[in-house]
Every structure is written in C-alpha cells, then in structure tokens.
Design goal:
It contains 21 helices and 10 strands. The chain is of the alpha+beta class and about 700 residues long. It has 4 domains: about 65-170, Alpha-Beta Plaits; about 195-350, Up-down Bundle (Multidrug efflux transporter AcrB transmembrane fold); about 350-395 and about 520-703, Multidrug efflux transporter AcrB transmembrane fold; about 430-515, Alpha-Beta Plaits. The strands form 3 sheets. Strands 2-3-1-4 form a 4-stranded antiparallel β-sheet, sandwiched between helices. Strands 6-9-5-10 form a 4-stranded antiparallel β-sheet, with helices on both faces. A hairpin with a 4-residue loop joins strand 7 (about 460-465) and strand 8. The two termini are about 40 Å apart.
C-alpha cells in the first residue's frame, strides 16, 4: 500500500511539473513569430557570393531597403490628364508612409509609363523591417483613395512579396495548430471510441508543444538558434505528431497489461518496462536524422535540426512521464465507455486467434502473410521499383520563384506577374554587382551587349547643390545595379547570373554578383549539395542505432532498405500528383531532403515498434510465430499512429506556402504508404521468408 501511494505521489509531482512548464510555455506561442526571419538571404552560408554582396551593399546604399512597386494598369491609354494628375499627386502623399526609406540613394520615383502607354509604375523605398504590414496598408489606402475609374492598382515588388509571405505565415501559430489538434482529436475518437483517451493524448501533445516552444523561444532570444516560418510550422506539427505516436504506443501496451494485470499500478509499471526501449530508440532515430541537418550548408536547415530535435526530446519526455501519470490516475476509466477487462487466461493463450481481442483485422493480415509471404514481398517490390523508374525522374526540384512559392494568387503576386508584361520583368529586383571602380565601365559595356539586360547603372549619390550625381566608391569598389528582362529567381534569370559570374571575371577577378536571383541560385546550389551529403550520414547513423537496438546486422539493413524504397516510391507518386493533379510549378531543392529526413526517421519509428515486438515474441517462441504475433499485436496501434501523424502533417497544407504544401503531401502520403503497405506487408513478408536468419549474426539465439 505504501509503495502504491509513492507511485501516485510521483505521478502528481510529474503532472504538476508539466503544468508549470505549460503555464510558462503557453504565453510564448504568440511571441515566437516575432523572432522569425523569413528572408532568403538569412538561409545562406557566409561564403556564398550573394551573402558577401548582402554584407557589403550597405557601403553603397541604404542596405535595409525594400522597394515597393506600385503598378497601375488600364484597358485604355493610361497617360490622360486625369490619371497623370492622380499619379503625380501620389508622390507627396507617399512620403507619409510609415518606415519610408528616403536617402541620397533612394527616393519615391515615378510615375514611369510603359512603352505601350497602358501601365505606369511608382517605386516606393520601404525599410526592410520584420513586419512591413503598416507600410503596405498605408500605401494601399493612399492609392485607393480617389483613384480614377478604370485604373487598376497593385502593390507588389520585393516589399509587396515580403508582406505576402508574412501574411501567409500568420497562420503558423493559430490555424495550423488548431487544424492539427482537431484532426488528431477526430481520428482518436474514431479509432478508440473513448471520450476521455483522445483528450489525455492531446493534452500530452499540447504540453509537449508548450515545453518545446518555451525552450526554443529561450534559445532564439539569445541568438543560439535562428527561426523562420518553415521551422516554426514543422516544429508544431512534428511535436504534436510525435507525442501522439509515442502516447498511442504506450496506450496500446497499457491496454494489453490491463488484460494481464488487475492492478493499474502494476499495469503502468509493466507498460513502461516494455515501452521505454522502443520509444527511446524511435525518438533517437528521429533526433539523429534531424541533427544530420547540422551538416547542411544552409543556415535554415542547420537551425531546423536542433529546433526540431528539441521538440522530439520534449515529446519523448512527456510521453514517458506525463502521459503514464495520467494513465495511472485514470486506469481503466480512461477507456470509458469501453471496458477493458482483466483476462489473464486469454493472455496466456499462444495462438493467433486469441489475439482477436486486440485486432481481428490484423490477425487476418498476419494469416495472409503466413500463406503468401514470398508472393507478397516479390510482387510489392517489383511494383514499387517500376513506379520509381517511371515516375521519380519527373520530380521537378530545380527551384521556384518567390511568386510561385506563395499560393492563392495574392495581389502582390498578381502585380509581379504583370510587371513583366509592361516593363522589364526584373524591375525592382536588380542584379547587384560589386566590382572595382576601374572596371565598372568595361563591366557595364559587357552587360549592355547581353539581350537580357535592360539597364545598368552605378549607384550614385545626388548633391542638391551641384545637382550632380557622383558614384559612391568604397574601398575602390562600386555597386552596379542591373535590371534584366527576366522575372527575378526564374530559371532564365538564374542562368543569367551563372553566365555573368563567369564572364565578368575577365574585367575583375574579385567581382561579386548578388541580389534576389543570386540568392535563390545559391540556395538551390547549397540545397542540392546537402541532399547528397546528408542522406548517407543520416542512413549510417540510423543503421547503427537499429543494430544496437535489435542486436542484429541483417534486420537493420532490411529495415533501412525498406524505408528507402518507401521514400523513393513516395517521391515518385508525389511527382505524379504535383505535375498532373495539383499542377504545381515545381519544388524547392530542399523538399526532397526534408521529405527524406521525416519519412526515413518516422518510417524507421514504425519499423522499430514492429521489430522490437517481433524480437520480444521470437525469443519466447519461434521467429516466424513471433513475426505473425508481432504484426497482430502492433498492426492496429501502428496504423492508428500513422494515420494520426499523416493527418497532423497534412495540416501544413492550410498554410498557403508551396514548400509546406508539398512537404505536407509527401510526409502524409509516405507515412500511410509505410504503415499500410511497407511495414505491414513488405517487411513482415521478407522477415518471414528469412525466418531466424533475419537476426544474423545472432540467429542461433532464436528458434
């Protein structure tokens, strides 16, 4: 009795501890967005050319400036007396805009009329602040006041696009979390048909998220880690999904132990004894995969690694302390209105039909595997390999422009797409070239020969007394701004950057080429490099963890190959959906890497849950019986966990950012493929065919 009281006391202490953590962590939900930096330039390594240009550009102009392009179009000739009076009258009004960046090198410029006379544009320099919404709203209000009939206006350009990104990410802390939680709640209610259990699991997930955000907020506040909207969204989804997964696994074991033990205290003790190793191994594989991102050359990836790893560690701690404490308090009542009976005689039976009490469906699947194991794994492997060969090469991951990244076609995107119709497509997004002053004339001459170039100018300061513009020279260098006829960050624009980076070196070996398009090019190059470097590292680390867990060499190799096959198949199917169903313009090069990190790590999780149970049963019985019993006992819980995780990642699709939408589909579909097909049929069939050889070189320990 005394020991029982001690367990209850410990449970209440643990619950109280996490209540305190949630109390401090909850308020940080609304604050953490203020620490996010979504500028692409912040993603790059220090040695990238575009980074070097960003660091030096302040020597020549106001570096923290983003131009807003006000585009005006009309179906009739725009240069009428009424329109001209309206447009010129905007200039003094726009000087009242908040965070206006007026200097010797920047000012409100316009109106500039298009060659065909159907459009005009005004450039408004805005300070590059964390939130430029007040400036954009003020501009919109000014241009929409007394606007002539027939004149259509757009606030676009770099400032408008940044604002559109900011608006898109506004749902990270609110709608994304709510959608994920509601999705998990509905699925848990349907799966467990209990009114209390889903809330116990969700409370655990919310507490884990609170604890994770509290730690990440503290680290970000001290500049130990850097946040962006993508890492913020992924953290929320990953923590909710992982905590739910670990809780479901523990819950499944608890239900088994309640059949075996009458005392709920003993049931919780036995549950933790049986669960801690597979849950720890599962969490370790995800943490190892995420920390593999530390080898990335992109700052954004390197920061996501530890941020997401913190989330997984906190999820593990909550699942192994807070959630079991709740189970101890509620016991069998947690399953209400269902009844979990004490049935020790049933537990002692060692035949598959006795496990119908856990899942009739998965017992039948196990019997199907027993009869057709070789046909199953051979046919599945052939089908998936054919799919990979035919569809995987069509996956487009060469990058997309900023306007293509923002979904929903907001005003800034509409305007930016129209700029190229009336003006040089690169207006407002010049290529920034830093070169020796003595080489400037030759470089401008060389650029003028290129049909892609609209104009090239050396950045100068205007002296109001002499009314002359003088080139700004710093350390013998000047800044040349080149406007091109291609939309910023498009493939032709990136090819132009590659070309001039090479050709201009004949005039200045140390010339640097930057700007938004160069940033995108350098990001794409770094992301492609990361894909080839990080994948082997992650696979090796996970393989070692599996070998230590399963005390085998062959079984971990089979599991790694199965998740790689699952990942490749998922990318192939994603390519078909992206290209022919969703009509996506393409993918960021980092999408396959993130898809790999999450799918391989999470896919191994489910295989760990399965194979540790198979190993446990194989030691007690024979390997083949252990495989069938392991599948029967874990099929329901792993599939439920997979469906929940797929639903949480699918919630990323509510944020209108292409990268997150694609990650949502890849991970959600991949998790379902892995849990329903790869893990339940392919892995078990191969293992059954190999029999005790699956445990090589320790197969002699098994029957």
């Amino acid at each position: 009795m005394k020991n029982r009281k001690n367990y209850y006391l410990l449970a209440f202490v643990l619950i109280g501890f996490w209540l305190v953590v949630a109390g401090f962590g909850g308020p940080t939900f609304g604050k953490i967005s203020g620490l996010s930096n979504n500028a692409e330039s912040s993603f790059l390594p220090k040695t990238a050319q575009s980074t070097l240009v960003e660091n030096q550009i302040g020597n020549f102009s106001q570096s923290n400036t983003l131009p807003a392009i006000l585009l005006f179009t009309s179906q009739k000739a725009i240069k009428s007396s009424v329109n001209n009076a309206y447009l010129t009258g905007l200039i003094p009004k726009l000087s009242l805009v908040p965070d206006l960046a007026i200097s010797k090198t920047s000012a409100v410029v316009g109106p500039i009329y298009s060659a065909d006379g159907f459009a005009a544009e005004i450039f408004v320099p805005i300070k590059a602040v964390a939130d430029n919404t007040p400036s954009i709203n003020a501009i919109s209000k000014i241009i929409n006041t007394n606007k002539p009939v027939g004149l259509i206006s757009y606030v676009t350009g770099p400032a408008g696009i940044v604002n559109a990104f900011s608006t898109a990410f506004n749902g990270i802390n609110g709608i994304l979390t709510y959608v994920a939680i509601i999705s998990v709640l509905v699925i848990l209610l349907l799966v467990y048909r209990s009114l209390l259990l889903p809330f116990l699991v969700l409370i655990s997930a919310i507490f884990a998220l609170s604890g994770s955000i509290l730690v990440v907020f503290a680290l970000a506040s001290h500049n130990i880690v850097s946040l962006n909207g993508e890492s913020q969204g992924i953290l929320s989804i990953l923590v909710i999904g992982a905590t739910t997964d670990y809780s479901i696994l523990i819950l499944s074991r608890f239900k088994e132990k309640l059949h075996e033990f009458e005392s709920k205290v003993e049931a919780v003790k036995q549950t933790l004894f049986a669960s801690w190793e597979p849950v720890l191994a599962a969490a370790s594989t995800v943490v190892a995969a995420l920390l593999g991102l530390l080898f990335s050359s992109l700052n954004s990836n390197r920061s996501l690694g530890p941020i997401a790893a913190i989330g997984i560690i906190v999820s593990f701690l909550v699942a192994m302390t807070f959630f079991p404490s709740l189970l101890l308090i509620f016991g069998r009542k947690a399953f209400w209105p269902l009844k979990v009976k004490y049935q020790p005689d049933l537990v002692k039976k060692e035949n598959l039909s006795s496990y119908n009490v856990y899942s009739r469906f998965w017992s039948k699947v196990a019997l199907f595997v027993e009869k057709k194991y070789r046909l199953i794994w051979i046919s599945l492997t052939v089908v998936l390999l054919v799919l990979i060969v035919l569809a995987l090469p069509t996956f487009k991951a060469s990058g997309v422009t900023q306007t293509e990244t923002i979904m929903g076609n907001p005003e800034a995107v509409q305007g930016q797409n129209l700029v190229g119709k009336y003006f040089p497509a690169g207006s407002g997004n010049p290529v920034e070239i830093i070169a020796r002053q003595t080489s400037a004339a030759q470089i401008i001459s060389e650029l003028s020969k290129n049909s892609a170039v609209s104009s090239s100018l050396v950045v100068s300061s205007f002296n109001p007394l002499t009314k002359k513009a003088t080139p700004i020279v710093y350390d013998g260098k000047v800044l040349i701004q080149t406007t091109i006829n291609y939309q910023a960050q498009s493939t032709p624009a990136q090819n132009f950057i590659k070309s001039i980076r090479s050709s201009l070196k004949q005039y200045d070996p140390n010339v640097l080429v930057g700007g938004n398009t160069a940033i995108q090019l350098d990001v794409n190059t770094a992301a492609s490099r990361d894909l080839h470097v990080i994948i082997p590292i992650v696979l090796t680390v996970i393989l070692v963890i599996l070998m230590l867990l399963l005390r085998s060499i062959l079984a971990p190799i089979v599991l790694i190959l199965s998740v790689v096959l699952s990942f490749a198949s998922t990318l192939a199917i994603s390519a078909l959906f992206f290209n022919h169903v969703f009509n996506f313009p393409g993918s960021d090069p980092s999408v396959p890497l993130f898809g790999f990190i999450f799918l391989v790590a999470l896919g191994v999780d489910y295989n760990i849950f399965l194979m540790t149970r198979i190993r446990e049963e194989s030691i007690r019985h024979s390997t083949r019986f252990g495989i069938l019993k392991g599948l029967s006992m874990t099929g329901s819980v792993i599939t439920s966990a997979g469906i929940v995780l797929a639903a949480t990642f699918a919630a990323l699709g509510v944020i209108p950012i292409l990268f997150l939408a694609e990650i949502a589909f890849i991970v959600a579909f991949g998790v379902l493929l892995d849990t329903l097909i790869i893990r339940s049929l392919l892995v078990t069939s191969i293992s059954y065919d190999l029999d005790k050889k699956i445990w090589w070189p320790n197969q002699k320990k098994f029957k």
